[in-house]
Write a structure and sequence with these properties.
globular; Rossmann fold; 5-stranded mixed sheet; alpha/beta; binds glutamic acid; 7-stranded mixed sheet; about 45% helix
Length: about 425
């Protein structure tokens, strides 16, 4: 991570302003879209296992719901801020629009460190969160989902609390629920697989076979693991993965030049994506500094951790060989670094396109929940593939025709769709 002060919301607004200008949006539309429509900040008093009370801060931000109910995850993270949640909610609006889902954008967060919380404590945070926000979320209003350090189990506790308050069943109030409890098969895999569906299409367009490519991955959480899984299935080789080490409070990169073994690494990884250093050494992994993932001699980089990862400070360390960057994380590249990637002609699949598989599968989960009829995994993943592929093709055609950088092409499509919805509703 860069040492420079970083504000995700300022970055999201900078990205928006650039494209809003070229789209010629009127002042009212610009003012509406560069800020969230609604936000909620609240305190969560939670009884800890030792009997004391800790007060956590929680946020839910609804950036825009012109195209449908707000949609987006809830993150648990010690460095969460209102501005990060604002940025992420804005990116959700663009993500749902570029994937052409009938949904708007929202995001939530709690400032907490799940590594230091027992599961019963996390359950009480989830329930306290819902008690604060129950009046402002709902299947037709705002639909949360899992995100950084939250899982299907957290979603189920939240669903249960919501249903206790309302007195009825509301399977559509939250997605990413466990399979068998209203969840969809394929939802766990969806974000990582979706990243690789877009990579597959990008490689196809440039006439490169996945089996002739080598990649490095930042992060080893849910998105990274399933991206590696499908990339390996297509024949690609991952030579390095990085992850956060909770004990040392810094990241490490684990490298194996003939390819990391996903199954073996998973066995020595905790539920937050932390790889055990000693066991990795026994398996023959080289242990390098956390930033080393970005310097590897590879064709593809998969930043699948957090925002602010490819920055003005480290972008020059990217090897000349890198031709493709697929942003599994939200907001991994700062505008300063993005400018360099653009100049260097690296093909970037921007975050809100590359990682739209999660929310697309959430949408498929909503559809199944509404029907109360659940599809086989292959059917879900087949639909997901079609939707991601068509979103990717839409953006890459726009980029080619108008000679735009991929991020700008994706923004152009997404912002135009949302602006049109606001206009059609008579808001602007
Ligand atoms: N948290 C995921 C994202 O950032 C998924 C959101 C959802 O499924 O609503 O896209």
């Amino acid at each position: 991570m860069s040492t420079k002060p970083f504000n995700a919301f300022a970055m999201a607004q900078t990205q928006f302003d650039k494209v809003a200008e070229t789209l010629g949006l009127d002042q009212g539309t610009k003012d509406l879209l560069r800020h969230p429509m609604r936000e909620y900040h609240f305190s969560l008093p939670v009884r800890m296992d030792d009997g004391t009370t800790t007060v956590f801060r929680g946020f839910r931000v609804q950036h825009n719901d012109a195209r449908g109910p707000a949609k987006g995850g809830i993150r648990f993270h010690p460095q969460e801020t209102a501005d990060t949640v604002r940025a992420l909610s804005m990116w959700m609006t663009w993500k749902c629009a570029v994937a052409n889902l009938p949904l708007g954008g929202g995001k939530g967060g709690v400032i907490c460190e799940p590594h230091n919380l027992s599961m019963p404590e996390q359950e009480r945070i989830c329930r306290a969160y819902v008690r604060q926000i129950a009046r402002d979320v709902g299947p037709l209003r705002d639909v949360p989902a899992p995100d950084v350090m939250t899982s299907g189990q957290h979603m189920l506790w939240m669903l249960d609390e919501y249903e206790q308050i309302r007195g009825d069943h509301y399977p559509g109030v939250i997605t990413g629920k466990p399979v068998g409890m209203g969840g969809s098969l394929g939802r766990t895999e969806a974000t990582g697989y979706g990243v690789v569906f877009t990579v597959r299409e990008a490689l196809k367009e440039s006439g490169v076979r996945p089996q002739d490519t080598v990649a490095a991955v930042q992060g080893f959480g849910n998105v990274a693991q399933y991206a590696i899984e499908l990339y390996n299935q297509l024949g690609g080789t991952v030579v390095a993965v990085s992850c956060w080490d909770q004990e040392d409070q810094k990241p490490y990169t684990f490298r194996k030049k003939d390819g990391v073994d996903l199954g073996a690494l998973r066995k020595i990884t905790d539920r937050f994506g932390g790889i055990n250093k000693e066991k990795a050494a026994e398996l023959g992994y080289e242990q390098l500094p956390g930033e080393a993932w970005i310097e590897q001699d590879v064709d593809i980089l998969f930043p699948c951790a957090l925002e602010n990862s490819i920055t003005g400070d480290n972008v020059s360390n990217i090897s000349k060989r890198v031709k493709l960057i697929a942003e599994g994380a939200n907001g991994p590249t700062t505008p300063e670094a993005d400018h360099v990637l653009h100049e260097r002609g690296i093909f970037v699949i921007p975050d809100f396109l590359a990682n739209a598989g999660g929310v697309t599968c959430s949408y498929l989960e909503q559809v199944q929940s509404n029907m109360n009829y659940f599809w086989e995994k292959d059917e879900v993943l087949g639909k997901l593939d079609l939707m991601m592929t068509s979103a990717f093709i839409g953006v890459s055609e726009m980029a080619r025709k108008r000679k735009l950088y991929m991020r700008d092409a994706a923004y152009t499509i997404a912002i135009a769709r949302v602006a049109q919805a606001c206009k059609d509703r008579g808001w602007v």
